[in-house]
Amino acid sequence: MAAVDLDLLQGTLDLLILKTLTWGPRHGYAVASWIRETTNQRLQIEEGALYTALHRMEKRGWLESEWGLSENNRKAKYYQLTTAGRKQLRAKTALWTEYAGCVFKVLQTV
Amino acid sequence: MSRIPGIRRFFRVERDSAGVERAVDDELQFHFDMTMRELMANGMNPDDARREADRRFGDATKTRERLATIDRSRVGSERRAEWWSAFAQDFRYALRGLRLKPGFAIAIVLTLGLGIGANAAMFGIVDRLLFRPPNFLIAPDRATRLYTARTFRGKENESSWIGYRRYLDLKEGTTSFDAMTPFYSHNLAVGAGDGTKEMKVGISAADLWKMFDVKPVIGRFFTADEDVPPDGSRVAVLSYAFWQTQFGGRPSAIGTMIDIGPAKYTIIGVAPEGFNGFSPDPLVAFVPISAQASAAGMGDPKTPWHSTYNMTWFESFARRKPGVTAEAATADLSRAMRLSYKKQLEVNPKGTPMALAKPRALAGPVLADRGPKAGNDAKVATWLVGVAAMVLLIACANVANLLLARALKRRREIAVRIALGVSRGRLLMQLATESLLLAFLGGVAGLAIAQWGGTLMRRTLLDQANDGPSAFTDPRLLGFAALLAIVAGLLTGLVPALQTGRTDVAAALKSGSREGTVHRSRIRAGLLIGQAALSVVLLVGAGLFLRSLVNVQNVRMGYDADRLMWISLNLRGVKSDSVHNVQLRQQLLERAAQIPGVEHAARALTVPFWSSWEFTLFVAGIDSVSKLGEFTLQAATPGFFETMGTRILRGRSFTAEDREHSPLVMVAGESMAKKIWPGRDALGQCVKVGADTMPCTTVIGIAEDVRRGSMSETEMHYYMPISQFHSSDGGLFVRTRGPAADKTDAVRRALQALMPGVSYVNVTPMSTIIAPQIRSWKVGAIMFAVFGALALVLAAIGLYSVIAYNVTQRTHEMGVRVALGAQSRDVMQLIVREGLRIVIPGVGLGTAISLVAGRWVAPLLFNVSPKDPPVMVAVVTTLVGVAIFASWVPARRAARVDPNEALRAD
């Protein structure tokens, strides 16, 4: 299986993270594994970029974080969506869907 | 954050920079550990797992840095937001507190307002005198006012007044300056016909425009080519305000003619708004010095104004070149001054020789009151700044006292809050917010008071019609008031805040309202001692200045100032002709004597405090009369002594018989007679006036001494008949029945009728001439008295509130005393004694400070010792009296305590 190198469009990574967090608070490792598993490991995301995105969104107030205990009783930083984050997710989803639709339409034309 | 379900809050997020980095490390470490664990669970060996984890992550070092940077900035903005929200909360809380107790808030705001207002008003005045450079001045630190100094009879005399020839010598003889100009303002008749009014006109050279960053609003400024002695171009630049009021701001004003003094000038431009050159007062126009001097006919044909050293009538200003220090400029100027003096000696070989005169010059500060010839006003104003600062201190002490009293009442509330986990820092912030809010409101009130008080003071005390800058728009004043408000807020908040910081929670919660007040009263008593001491200092100041004022007003001037007025003539448009001039003055004299309400009138040459005249005198048997001192002369018509009210002690005054060709006579002042003929009879002595070759002038009378140059000492003065003095100059003194100030209009109207063409008379009551001489004592007395009274009232209120508070706290104890048989007199004595115990150390301290500080204030007093016993006794008595009264009121309440009620309560 060839991996898609996700040199993602600006904001796509943000979108994926926001979506991931709609199921509840997670730490960075969980976000990364969830994306990997959901895409059947086809989407290769550099994890450094993922953490950068997490911290940047926290600074913008889309996420908030808290230290908690992980499944194996270790100290981990959990992220969860804020109201502003949910709003961002809705807006970005709409935008991305429309964008993908347009690109797809162009590709469909013979 | 506790909204995150299922996760307990175990760890605090770190807020400092190291904490942020540690948090990032922890987070990434967790991530790597988890990745490794998963990979190894899938069968990878540890080395491969580490490599795979690294690959998935990318550049860890860079990411770590990036994350820390993002977090640091987030933490910073969070902290700011938190601070603001806490502040907003405190602010709302403080506002609510004040709304609930409006009386308390108003008392504090007014107290602080008075303190801040007094300071802002004084700052406005002192700023103008000592700190604020003239508007638009380029490089104020390099601008200088020039002074020259010469030693005369062993006494060095510095002066900023110089003449044109000297100015040219200094300008041409120096290299330190890139601009130098004469400047003075002069009252000149401006306009023609009925609209003619005397207004201040600025007179300068073209370099004036180089020293200021100004461009003409319309037209142009005059140039150096238009300012060439002996006759400069008659061109005028109007001030903006004058252009607006007289020409309606119309550009067509350019090119029209305007009467300024004796000549007509062409208007060539308008200066920007607020430009007054170096003058502290508003001006109406600016003209070249050469035009004004020639139009005024200064000097005489043999010694024209621009080539004589004998006239001084203006001040000079210059700007040092960049990099030239004031010392270097002064040295350069002194060199030029010595050369100039040498030239002067060539023209006038009889002058004081160079070695004795020791001429030098000085590049002084541009503001006159910072220079060597600072006036009394600036000194008094500086003192008053100190006084105002004391008033503010007293106001702060009072406010601190009020806040403290409230903090004590809120002790339990505060203890409860601390017990509930509110941090002490947070509580302090809240108290500080409250006092800063009060101080801010006090600052606003203070500005209003400064605005109103400053205007009142300028109008009534300084005789300045012009209003200064508005307190609410002047940035310097606003900044100063804001600074004071902050300082006052911190000072007043400090004491209650310290109190809160010390709150012993357990004790405060356990105790009733009665306990734990003793040491707190001590702080309040300490504040009161300070207040009482400051009040004493201010009241002593008020007493000393008041006595000075009374002394200076009661001093025998040697003439009746209140009933005299001086009439001077402005003969513009009249051809100068001495015969005609004498005739005109004679007509005016005859007319003046007929005006109802006028008792006497006389012609005279000079006016006390405005002008004086001197001649070299020769007396047989005395080498050099001028070595004995300065002898000034007055020339007048018969009737002069009756007019002035100057008493003839012996001999006679001159009469109509002492005419031009009869034997020369003089009346000598008492101190002159004693100086020249000690122990001998001066009557009948011979004095040669002006030259050794003159015929004898015989002393025919001795007059009492007069004060005409200084309020503090009399002058050696003598009088000659004006007919023998051959002068067509001078004006008239008129003596009225009542106060002269009431009759000026009637006299002006009657005399103006005789004036030919556009010439006119100026009528000035003698009291107006003397007013500036006694102004500093008047200002000092009034301001010290106002501030002192203010301080006393504040101290009395403070004392009352502390005693009343203590009485309330000790109701129980009083009840016990009464129950045990204490009479109400005993209780009252107890309380009053407590008040005195606070005030007497304060009075002692204040008296000690006054005695020490008296040394510095002594030069500003008039015939009063700074240790004046009556003043000291009066002040001490007043304070003790006020203290007794302030504690007597609560004492009466204590005496009426009903033991039944007091013992049952609590």
Give a written overview of the molecule.
The complex is a heterodimer of chains A (110) and B (906). With 110 residues, chain A is an alpha+beta fold. Chain A is built from four helices and five strands. In chain A, the strands form two sheets. Chain A has a three-stranded antiparallel sheet. In chain A, a hairpin with a 5-residue loop joins strand 4 and strand 5. In chain A, helix 1 crosses helix 4 (83-108). The mean pLDDT of chain A is 85. In chain B, strands 1, 2, 3, 4, 5, 6, 7, 8, 9, 10, 11 and 12 form a twelve-stranded mixed sheet that branches. In chain B, strands 15, 16, 17, 18, 19, 20 and 21 form a seven-stranded mixed sheet that branches. Chain B is globular, with a radius of gyration of 38 Å. At the A-B interface, helix 2, helix 3, strand 4 and strand 5 of A face helix 1 and helix 3 of B.
Provide the CATH topology of chain A: Arc Repressor Mutant, subunit A
Strand elements of chain B, count: 23
Q: What is the mean predicted local confidence, pLDDT of chain A? A: 85
Number of helices of chain A: 4
Going across the biggest sheet of chain A, name each strand in turn: 2-5-4
**SSE class of chain B:** alpha+beta
Distance between the termini of chain A: 28 Å
Mind telling me the C-alpha Rg of chain B?
38 Å
Low-confidence stretches of chain A: none
What is the N-to-C succession of helices and strands of chain A? EHEHEHEEH
How many structurally independent domains of chain B?
4
**Which two chains have the most extensive interface, and how many residues on each?**
A-B, 30 and 34 residues
Short description:
With 110 residues, chain A is an alpha+beta fold. Chain A has four helices and five strands, in the order βαβαβαββα. The interface between A and B is medium-sized, with 30 and 34 residues.
